[in-house]
């Protein structure tokens, strides 16, 4: 099933600009539509349609950042026939409108959206350690608590932690509402190993696959281990602060 889901995820990533259907995606995985939809969500945390939307918005972020295409051209390039629908989907996932995201990329004129804990007085905290995989250098890590298995707006709590290559670092997410949350992490690690000129490496991580249950006035313990990204990982949608690998890491007092 892992191979089938990876085939389907690869197909979505290659053909996101086309008018894809669940039946067509299931055929690429060589599974029946019903069976495919079930196993795809079990493996990725998203339905095929949700995964497709995430891939389209992620690619739109790249085009807005790195090309001179207009927002309307980007919308069409990633498979949207309506600019309004694209703008709504982009803003919901990224936390910024396409135009504001372009300004953020070009001149840092806008700050990335911060955590949104929402209403309600009952809060707790999530704390633990975050560790890098072997063979990677120091990393700057963004950790957040999310309602879904996607790093998308809004995070209900978040923190940025510098992690050294040779040991874990402590983190703490404060003011987390009561409930069940996906604890997800995104990082950029310095290249290490035999080639010191290796490019910085993107990493992903989570606690689980189980969600983290938070209760009021308590600290929930949850360890996070990062790893290289896989084809079936949902794309990162949230507009993040710069995650440049630190040259050195000061040990956390915790």
The CATH topology of the largest domain: Arc Repressor Mutant, subunit A
What share of residues is helical?
25-40%
* Quaternary structure classification: single chain
Order of helices and strands: HHHHHHHEEEEEEEEE
Q: Provide the CATH superfamily of the largest domain.
A: Homeodomain-like
Strand composition percent: 25-35%
User: What is the number of independent domains?
Assistant: 2
- Please count the helical segments: 7
Q: What shape does the CA trace take?
A: globular
What is the residue-mean pLDDT, rounded to a whole number? 90
Brief descriptors of the model:
2 domains, 254 residues, Immunoglobulin-like, Arc Repressor Mutant, subunit A, 32% helix, nine-stranded mixed sheet, alpha+beta
What can you tell me about this protein's structure?
This protein has 7 helices and 9 strands, in the order αααααααβββββββββ. With 254 residues, the protein is of the alpha+beta class. It folds into 2 domains: 2-107, Arc Repressor Mutant, subunit A, CATH 1.10.10; 123-228, Immunoglobulin-like, CATH 2.60.40. Strands 1, 2, 3, 4, 5, 6, 7, 8 and 9 form a 9-stranded mixed sheet that branches. α1 crosses α2 (22-29), α1 (2-15) packs across α3 (33-44) and α4 (48-66) crosses α6 (83-94). The model has no long low-confidence stretch (mean pLDDT 90).
Short description:
It contains seven helices and nine strands; from the N terminus they run αααααααβββββββββ.
């Amino acid at each position: 099933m892992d191979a089938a889901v990876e085939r389907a995820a690869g197909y979505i990533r290659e053909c996101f600009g086309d008018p894809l259907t669940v039946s067509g995606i299931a055929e690429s995985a060589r599974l029946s539509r019903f069976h495919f939809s079930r196993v795809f969500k079990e493996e990725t945390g998203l339905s095929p349609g949700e995964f497709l939307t995430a891939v389209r918005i992620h690619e739109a972020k790249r085009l807005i950042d790195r090309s001179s295409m207009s927002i309307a051209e980007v919308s069409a390039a990633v498979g949207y026939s309506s600019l309004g629908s694209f703008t709504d989907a982009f803003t919901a996932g990224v936390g910024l409108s396409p135009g504001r995201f372009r300004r953020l990329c070009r001149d840092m004129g806008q700050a990335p959206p911060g955590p949104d804990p929402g209403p309600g007085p009952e809060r707790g905290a999530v704390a633990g350690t975050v560790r890098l995989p072997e063979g990677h250098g120091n990393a700057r890590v963004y950790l957040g608590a999310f309602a879904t298995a996607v790093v998308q707006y809004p995070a209900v709590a978040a923190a940025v932690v510098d992690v050294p290559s040779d040991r874990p670092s402590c983190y703490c997410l404060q003011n987390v509402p009561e409930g069940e949350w996906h604890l997800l992490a995104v990082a950029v690690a310095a290249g290490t190993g035999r080639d010191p000129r290796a490019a910085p490496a993107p990493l992903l991580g989570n606690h689980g696959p189980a969600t983290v249950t938070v209760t009021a006035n308590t600290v929930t313990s949850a360890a996070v281990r990062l790893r290289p990204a896989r084809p079936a990982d949902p794309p990162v949608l949230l507009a993040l602060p710069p995650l440049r690998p630190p040259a050195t890491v000061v040990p956390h007092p915790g």
